[in-house]
Amino acid sequence: MALAEKTYGSKAFTESVMKERLPKSTFKALKKAFEENKPIPAEIADIVASAMKDWATEQGATHYTHWFQPMTGITAEKHDSFISPNPDGTAIFEFSGKELIKGEPDASSFPSGGLRATFEARGYTVWDPTSYAFVKDDTLYIPTAFYSYSGEALDKKTPLLRSMDAVSKQAVRVLKLFGKDDVNKVVATVGAEQEYFLIDREHYAKRKDLVLTGRTLFGQSAPKGQELEDHYFGTLKQRVSDFMKDLDNSLWELGIPSKTKHNEVAPSQHECAPVFESANLAADHNQLTMELMKKIAKKHGYACLLHEKPFAGVNGSGKHDNWSLSTDKGQNLLDPGKNPIDNAQFLTFLAAIVAAVDDYAVLLRLSVATAGNDHRLGANEAPPAVVSIFLGEELLDVVEALIEDRDPLDKNSVFKVGVSSLPSFPKDTTDRNRTSPFAFTGNKFEFRMLGSNLNIAGPNIILNTIVAEKLDIFAERLEKAEAFDEELKALLKETFNTHKRIIFNGNGYDDNWLEEAAKRGLPNIPNAAEAIPHFKDAENIRIFTKHGVFSDIEVHSRTDILIENYVRTVNIEALTAIDIAQKEILPACRKYQLELAKLIKLKRGLDIGIDTTIEADFLRTHSEETDKLAKAICALTGVQVEAVSVTEIEEQAKSYQTKVIPALNLLREIADGLECYTPAEYWPIPTYTDILFSAK
Ligand code: ADP
Ligand code: MG
Question: What is the CATH number for 628?
């Protein structure tokens, strides 16, 4: 047995550990509670807690923490020790069922979007038994949901779990119509491919912009970028390979199924992809993966950058969200299948997804909207901000055949008359389109608009909810049908016909597509400041409340938090840029000019007829550009001060988007120009060449 096989999951309180350590009856009761989504009875919780504590302390744990994902998107934790002192001066380790199930962190400083007055600081964390507890840094981590005293969700996990229930409920209803009476639950499955950069820590530490904002706010492109495409899938450098090995081992110990690793398109960029899991586990595991990447990078002398666009001029980092639905009997509902019945069922789910993505394209768009992702979407390295679906030629033909009442063109596709009267077709696995925001890839959809930094819960909450909504409408109609086959055929034909505008198999990076998309009436929302406020559109609130995913209040508070986050991000960038330009770049330029002026003066003083016109011209240009820099700093300061004082949050976001960002860009442009004309020894911060190409 390979060592990794032995250590896989060794730091997670997995089902296999529970089975081994819990009394049979407790294990059974616990599993039943999981499966039926019921609360865990107190006496069972006590037994589980005690077994968990014994297991964790054997792993060296002295503390436990309720681990949760507040709306900032970063994980949070507060540690308590297991210590319980005795009157005789000794102590024992204790952990009760109550402590396992519920925690009450002082949560007044987490964003609640006005959900919780500061005097009511109480927030509760509640054990999520569907995600395994684990040991890290001598602490037992218990994945939990986080909500307020009055029951509103204050985190990302709670609505994700609610949305998984919603889509499960509706999918089970639809499956019943296909005779799948034995299916009790359908699970949304997700595999998140994570891109990241590794750069030398030494360089990182010298760049305030990277440290404070996660991206470079200045930097002339290196002479070489990614044009030779020599990094993509290239041989791994030894140091990178050592990092990846270390990362894999740490992920595997926690039971995170890391599978693929390779170099990405941009220099110093890499990717790590796991085997898919339930959306909930995938979300928890992706958060842990990002955290471990940063930590392990440090050990190897690297800084791991997870920002969506750390460097201008080369690709940023994304996160592909592979999504599907799977029954508790193990059937992947997006696997086209071999026989007509399965095909009909597949086409029904496909139709629901196509309709959902078309009707709720704006929701999907805003689920990936952040200040950082604005640099990627539509920049010819990531899909455009217009949502569309790629189906591949073969599947598109099947869909068109349905609309046009004809046979599919493919001779292998047999039009079977019978239970379903729907075409049978072989699965297409060869077609690949990397430019589509939402692509069918054989047996799953790949949502490609996510930025690398994002908590994947957000987009998956949306996907689950919008698909639940369409499945609900389908079930309503089909349940009432007198002749199921005919009704289904009519429903599919109608649905594909209504929503075919969202299907686009061509090149999503092509400008012609944007024109075509506009003609088709597809929404194109270019930036986060404009996208986010749509979260609270009436139709969106209607489906969220109908499916029990968000209450009206929760939607409003979340919208505010997302916009606030946008505003704060851009504000920090502006202040950081001002700081660097003012305190580092400007003085460096003046210093160089002084040296240059001294040189010119010296040469002229020699009185041997040295021609100093070129140097003098150069000095003048350098000085003029530096004056422009000084003005640009003032201009940015001006619009930043103006934006800070706008009181209405949506107006404020607009102010940052339309005034602060352009001023920031102008400042950068001038500084980057100066970088070209200033000797390396005077330039105060590591350059793109240093950062992207010099790590060994
Ligand atoms: P591709 O070549 O299309 O990127 P891969 O097989 O490499 O496909 O898978 C990419 C990601 O998709 C992996 O994380 C994988 O686990 C995930 N994936 C595969 N099948 C499913 C599924 N049914 N549901 C969700 N994710 C899936
Ligand atoms: Mg992929």
Answer: 1.20.120.1560
